[in-house]
Amino acid sequence: MSKITAIAHSNLAFVKYWGKRSPELNLPLNGSISMNLSSATTTTSVEFHDALSTDIVTVDEHEAAPDFARRVTKHMDRIRALAGQSAYAYIHTSNSFPAGTGFASSASGMAALTLAAVHAIGLSMEERALTVLARLGSGSACRSIPGGFVEWLAGDTTDKSYAVQIAPPEHWDILDIAVVVTEETKMISSSLGHQLALQSPFWQSRYLMMPERLDRVRTALLNRDFPLFGREIETEAISMHAVAMTSPHTYDQGWHSGIYYWSPDTMALINAVQRWRTNGLPVFFTLDAGPTVHLICPADQQEAVIGAVRELEQQQGNQQWSIVVSRPAPGAHLL
Ligand code: DP6
Asked: Cα(249)–Cα(111) distance, rounded to whole angstroms?
């Protein structure tokens, strides 16, 4: 069988997936809306070989960490089962960004793996079925299959939980200016965070306001209404973190009252964004399960926003933050 290579972009959620109805199937409590990120990609090649007795997984030319290799093989098993085949494969993957820096590598990784493996094994699947399959590998990965701006419909069964494009990448020239304030990896993974969300006394109020939130974000996006869009996505990010911060758990044998994904630099940026807006800069923030602050602004504000970030960085004592700028990007595709 031939070697197939696919590339997928990571995505940034404007309405977040936080909490699962089914952890086995990655069925989310609520729908979500995202944008594919031009600067964060995973490239994966898959080549089946009858002589192999296990999958051989490499990341950037090195043997993959055991946890990662297990997750890949589990996903490959799903694809083998669908195709009724048993051959193992060589799987090479590389990311354009370091892991643990606030970009969901599992999103681009599972989307690229799904597309490459499905083609390498000879299955023919529509986009919707590909999103369902990618979702089983990692929930947010389903949103990296379609291009541009994407909505994942929550659904209550596996076939009804899929992602669709709501607008192509060229619909709206907005940017994600990601400010990576630390490269330390987080203590609580998103997968664990999803489980703990149900411990929060506030998850239900977030859940109940979700249908309206999704409508408002989708409408603002389709109308290119930046002020409305910005207010919605910023309050939405804080609502996800409010649930995380009120999710008690035991970690490393110690009891914690909640998960704090933020660092002091995250907080400095959150405060600064509100000041910058008061001074007329059109910029809002969103935050995933980590300290990286994603600044969202119209593309023509890129220089002004980066200038403001660099000034703040100096005031904070020259922290050497890294900045990654992304435009809306296409969906997963074969190379
Ligand atoms: C905060 O998709 O990484 O980025 O389904 O367990 O793999 P699993 O979780 P994952 O969760 C992403 C959480 C988030 C919000 C989002 O991307 O919607």
From this structure: 31
Q: CA nearest 40: which of 288, 223, 265, 317?
A: 288
Largest CA distance in the chain: 64
Task: Summarize pLDDT for 52-82 with one digit per residue, the tens.
Answer: 999 999 998 899 989 889 999 999 999 999 9
Predicted confidence (pLDDT) per residue in 154-188, tens digit: 999 999 999 999 999 999 999 999 999 987 777 78
**Relative to the CA of 11, which ligand 1 atom is closest?**
17
pTM equals 0.97
CA dist 183 and 194 (Å) reads: 22
Phi, psi (rounded to 5 degrees) for 57: -110, 125
Point out which residues pair with 34 in neighbouring strands: 13, 150
Give the nearest ligand 1 atom to 107 CA: 2
CA–CA distance, 319 with 65 (Å, rounded to integer): 30
- Residue 16 in contact with ligand 1 by CB distance below 6 A: yes
Asked if residue 79 lies in contact with residue 117, where contact means CB atoms within 8 angstroms, the answer is yes
What lies within 8 Å, CB to CB, of 86 at 6+ separation is 80
**Single-letter residue type at 39:** S
